[in-house]
From TrEMBL:
Listed name of the protein: DUF998 domain-containing protein
Keywords: Membrane, Transmembrane, Transmembrane helix
Domain of life: Bacteria
Transmembrane segments: 20-41, 61-79, 91-110, 130-151, 163-183, 195-218
Organism: Yoonia phaeophyticola
Amino acid sequence: MRPFVPEKHREDMVLSYHRVRTALGLLGMALPLVLIIGGLMDYRRIEPSISDFYHTTYRDIFVGTLCAIGVFLICYRGYGRVEADYIDDDWLGTIAGISAFGVALFPNESPTAQIATMTQNLVGIGASPLFHYSSALIFFTCLAVFCLSKFARSAKPHRRKIYLLCGWTIVLSLIGIAGASAIKILGDGAAQVFVVQYGLVFWFEAIGIWAFGLSWLVKGRADIAILKLAGHDPGPDEDDPLRS
Protein backbone atom coordinates (compact mmCIF):
# COMPACT_ATOMS: atom_id res chain seq x y z
CA MET A 1 0.00 0.00 0.00
CA ARG A 2 1.35 3.42 -0.98
CA PRO A 3 1.58 6.00 1.81
CA PHE A 4 -0.96 8.81 1.72
CA VAL A 5 0.47 12.03 0.30
CA PRO A 6 -1.46 15.24 1.04
CA GLU A 7 -2.60 16.92 -2.15
CA LYS A 8 -0.64 20.11 -1.37
CA HIS A 9 2.57 18.14 -0.85
CA ARG A 10 1.90 16.17 -3.99
CA GLU A 11 1.51 19.35 -6.02
CA ASP A 12 4.72 20.78 -4.57
CA MET A 13 6.66 17.62 -5.48
CA VAL A 14 5.25 17.56 -9.00
CA LEU A 15 6.17 21.22 -9.43
CA SER A 16 9.68 20.49 -8.16
CA TYR A 17 10.11 17.72 -10.74
CA HIS A 18 8.88 19.98 -13.50
CA ARG A 19 11.34 22.69 -12.48
CA VAL A 20 14.26 20.25 -12.55
CA ARG A 21 13.23 19.07 -16.00
CA THR A 22 12.78 22.62 -17.23
CA ALA A 23 16.17 23.64 -15.83
CA LEU A 24 17.81 20.76 -17.68
CA GLY A 25 16.04 21.76 -20.86
CA LEU A 26 17.06 25.40 -20.58
CA LEU A 27 20.69 24.53 -19.88
CA GLY A 28 20.78 22.22 -22.89
CA MET A 29 19.22 24.81 -25.20
CA ALA A 30 21.43 27.64 -23.93
CA LEU A 31 24.90 26.04 -23.98
CA PRO A 32 25.48 25.82 -27.78
CA LEU A 33 23.77 29.18 -28.33
CA VAL A 34 25.99 31.00 -25.80
CA LEU A 35 29.13 29.41 -27.28
CA ILE A 36 28.09 30.35 -30.82
CA ILE A 37 27.45 33.98 -29.89
CA GLY A 38 30.58 34.20 -27.74
CA GLY A 39 32.80 32.58 -30.34
CA LEU A 40 31.60 34.88 -33.12
CA MET A 41 31.89 37.99 -30.96
CA ASP A 42 35.31 37.29 -29.44
CA TYR A 43 37.09 35.17 -32.05
CA ARG A 44 35.08 35.78 -35.23
CA ARG A 45 34.70 32.02 -35.49
CA ILE A 46 33.13 28.97 -33.90
CA GLU A 47 35.48 26.36 -32.46
CA PRO A 48 35.67 23.03 -34.33
CA SER A 49 33.74 21.34 -31.49
CA ILE A 50 31.89 22.31 -28.33
CA SER A 51 34.62 20.57 -26.34
CA ASP A 52 37.24 22.84 -27.91
CA PHE A 53 35.67 25.78 -26.09
CA TYR A 54 37.29 24.31 -22.97
CA HIS A 55 40.54 25.77 -24.27
CA THR A 56 39.12 29.29 -24.67
CA THR A 57 37.94 32.03 -22.34
CA TYR A 58 34.55 30.25 -22.38
CA ARG A 59 35.90 27.34 -20.34
CA ASP A 60 33.94 28.42 -17.26
CA ILE A 61 30.65 28.40 -19.17
CA PHE A 62 31.40 25.03 -20.77
CA VAL A 63 32.45 23.38 -17.51
CA GLY A 64 29.87 25.13 -15.32
CA THR A 65 26.92 24.28 -17.57
CA LEU A 66 27.89 20.64 -17.94
CA CYS A 67 28.45 20.31 -14.20
CA ALA A 68 25.05 21.88 -13.53
CA ILE A 69 23.47 19.43 -15.98
CA GLY A 70 25.33 16.63 -14.23
CA VAL A 71 24.05 17.66 -10.79
CA PHE A 72 20.44 17.89 -12.00
CA LEU A 73 20.64 14.49 -13.71
CA ILE A 74 22.14 12.82 -10.65
CA CYS A 75 19.44 14.35 -8.43
CA TYR A 76 16.66 13.36 -10.85
CA ARG A 77 14.88 10.28 -9.55
CA GLY A 78 12.14 9.88 -12.14
CA TYR A 79 9.95 6.79 -12.28
CA GLY A 80 10.61 3.41 -10.70
CA ARG A 81 11.69 0.46 -12.80
CA VAL A 82 8.99 -1.52 -14.62
CA GLU A 83 9.23 -5.04 -15.96
CA ALA A 84 10.30 -4.02 -19.47
CA ASP A 85 13.12 -1.76 -18.23
CA TYR A 86 16.77 -2.79 -18.07
CA ILE A 87 17.51 0.21 -15.84
CA ASP A 88 15.39 2.65 -13.85
CA ASP A 89 15.30 6.41 -14.29
CA ASP A 90 17.35 7.03 -11.16
CA TRP A 91 20.33 4.94 -12.26
CA LEU A 92 20.12 6.18 -15.85
CA GLY A 93 20.13 9.80 -14.66
CA THR A 94 23.04 9.09 -12.31
CA ILE A 95 25.12 7.52 -15.09
CA ALA A 96 24.29 10.41 -17.42
CA GLY A 97 25.18 12.94 -14.71
CA ILE A 98 28.52 11.33 -13.92
CA SER A 99 29.38 11.20 -17.62
CA ALA A 100 28.50 14.91 -17.92
CA PHE A 101 31.09 15.58 -15.23
CA GLY A 102 33.55 13.46 -17.21
CA VAL A 103 32.98 15.51 -20.36
CA ALA A 104 33.46 18.74 -18.40
CA LEU A 105 36.47 17.82 -16.29
CA PHE A 106 38.58 15.69 -18.67
CA PRO A 107 39.71 18.01 -21.48
CA ASN A 108 40.03 16.86 -25.07
CA GLU A 109 43.33 17.24 -26.90
CA SER A 110 44.75 20.73 -27.41
CA PRO A 111 48.06 21.51 -29.14
CA THR A 112 48.23 24.89 -27.37
CA ALA A 113 47.65 23.71 -23.79
CA GLN A 114 50.48 24.90 -21.54
CA ILE A 115 49.35 23.85 -18.05
CA ALA A 116 47.96 20.45 -17.15
CA THR A 117 44.70 20.42 -15.20
CA MET A 118 44.10 18.40 -12.05
CA THR A 119 42.34 15.64 -13.98
CA GLN A 120 45.09 15.57 -16.63
CA ASN A 121 47.66 15.16 -13.88
CA LEU A 122 45.52 12.40 -12.41
CA VAL A 123 45.16 10.26 -15.55
CA GLY A 124 47.86 11.74 -17.80
CA ILE A 125 47.51 14.35 -20.54
CA GLY A 126 47.53 11.69 -23.22
CA ALA A 127 44.74 9.68 -21.55
CA SER A 128 42.48 12.66 -20.77
CA PRO A 129 40.88 12.76 -24.27
CA LEU A 130 40.02 9.06 -23.95
CA PHE A 131 38.07 9.76 -20.74
CA HIS A 132 36.51 12.82 -22.39
CA TYR A 133 35.23 11.00 -25.48
CA SER A 134 34.14 7.92 -23.52
CA SER A 135 32.14 10.15 -21.19
CA ALA A 136 30.58 11.96 -24.15
CA LEU A 137 29.55 8.65 -25.72
CA ILE A 138 27.90 7.49 -22.49
CA PHE A 139 26.27 10.90 -21.96
CA PHE A 140 24.64 11.07 -25.39
CA THR A 141 23.60 7.40 -25.21
CA CYS A 142 21.83 7.98 -21.88
CA LEU A 143 20.06 11.04 -23.28
CA ALA A 144 18.84 9.01 -26.25
CA VAL A 145 17.56 6.24 -23.93
CA PHE A 146 15.64 8.82 -21.88
CA CYS A 147 13.86 10.07 -24.99
CA LEU A 148 13.28 6.80 -26.84
CA SER A 149 12.42 4.58 -23.88
CA LYS A 150 11.67 6.46 -20.69
CA PHE A 151 9.84 9.56 -21.92
CA ALA A 152 8.06 8.03 -24.90
CA ARG A 153 6.68 5.09 -22.94
CA SER A 154 3.99 6.95 -20.98
CA ALA A 155 3.55 10.03 -23.14
CA LYS A 156 0.47 11.17 -24.98
CA PRO A 157 0.68 10.68 -28.77
CA HIS A 158 1.70 14.24 -29.66
CA ARG A 159 4.42 14.28 -27.01
CA ARG A 160 5.56 10.78 -27.87
CA LYS A 161 6.30 11.98 -31.40
CA ILE A 162 8.45 14.79 -30.00
CA TYR A 163 10.36 12.44 -27.70
CA LEU A 164 10.99 9.95 -30.49
CA LEU A 165 12.11 12.71 -32.84
CA CYS A 166 14.49 14.07 -30.20
CA GLY A 167 15.79 10.60 -29.37
CA TRP A 168 16.57 9.64 -32.95
CA THR A 169 18.06 13.08 -33.55
CA ILE A 170 20.46 12.43 -30.65
CA VAL A 171 21.33 9.00 -32.09
CA LEU A 172 22.01 10.43 -35.55
CA SER A 173 23.99 13.29 -34.01
CA LEU A 174 26.12 10.78 -32.10
CA ILE A 175 26.84 8.89 -35.32
CA GLY A 176 27.71 12.18 -37.03
CA ILE A 177 29.97 13.22 -34.14
CA ALA A 178 31.83 9.90 -34.27
CA GLY A 179 32.32 10.03 -38.02
CA ALA A 180 33.31 13.69 -38.18
CA SER A 181 35.65 13.35 -35.18
CA ALA A 182 37.38 10.37 -36.78
CA ILE A 183 38.00 12.40 -39.94
CA LYS A 184 39.10 15.43 -37.91
CA ILE A 185 41.63 13.46 -35.85
CA LEU A 186 42.77 10.70 -38.20
CA GLY A 187 41.98 11.98 -41.67
CA ASP A 188 43.98 14.15 -43.99
CA GLY A 189 43.45 16.15 -47.12
CA ALA A 190 40.20 17.71 -48.33
CA ALA A 191 37.91 15.71 -46.02
CA GLN A 192 39.70 16.86 -42.88
CA VAL A 193 39.74 20.46 -44.07
CA PHE A 194 36.01 20.28 -44.83
CA VAL A 195 35.15 18.91 -41.37
CA VAL A 196 37.23 21.55 -39.57
CA GLN A 197 36.33 24.49 -41.80
CA TYR A 198 32.59 23.94 -41.51
CA GLY A 199 32.67 22.86 -37.85
CA LEU A 200 30.77 19.64 -38.49
CA VAL A 201 31.63 18.18 -35.08
CA PHE A 202 30.35 21.33 -33.38
CA TRP A 203 27.07 21.35 -35.28
CA PHE A 204 26.41 17.65 -34.73
CA GLU A 205 27.05 18.19 -31.01
CA ALA A 206 24.86 21.30 -30.92
CA ILE A 207 21.96 19.55 -32.66
CA GLY A 208 22.19 16.62 -30.24
CA ILE A 209 22.26 18.90 -27.19
CA TRP A 210 19.39 21.00 -28.53
CA ALA A 211 17.35 17.81 -29.00
CA PHE A 212 18.16 16.88 -25.40
CA GLY A 213 17.10 20.34 -24.23
CA LEU A 214 13.84 20.26 -26.17
CA SER A 215 12.86 16.85 -24.82
CA TRP A 216 13.41 17.93 -21.21
CA LEU A 217 11.55 21.20 -21.75
CA VAL A 218 8.57 19.23 -23.04
CA LYS A 219 8.92 16.82 -20.11
CA GLY A 220 8.93 19.85 -17.81
CA ARG A 221 5.62 20.90 -19.34
CA ALA A 222 7.01 24.05 -20.93
CA ASP A 223 4.66 23.39 -23.85
CA ILE A 224 1.67 23.37 -21.48
CA ALA A 225 2.81 26.63 -19.88
CA ILE A 226 3.01 28.24 -23.33
CA LEU A 227 -0.50 27.02 -24.20
CA LYS A 228 -1.89 28.39 -20.95
CA LEU A 229 -0.23 31.75 -21.57
CA ALA A 230 -1.86 31.77 -24.99
CA GLY A 231 -5.26 31.19 -23.37
CA HIS A 232 -5.70 27.53 -24.37
CA ASP A 233 -6.58 24.69 -22.02
CA PRO A 234 -4.24 21.79 -22.80
CA GLY A 235 -6.24 19.37 -20.65
CA PRO A 236 -4.89 16.91 -18.09
CA ASP A 237 -1.24 15.93 -18.35
CA GLU A 238 0.07 12.38 -18.26
CA ASP A 239 3.19 13.19 -16.23
CA ASP A 240 3.02 12.36 -12.55
CA PRO A 241 6.40 11.71 -10.93
CA LEU A 242 4.76 10.20 -7.87
CA ARG A 243 3.11 7.33 -9.69
CA SER A 244 4.73 3.94 -9.43
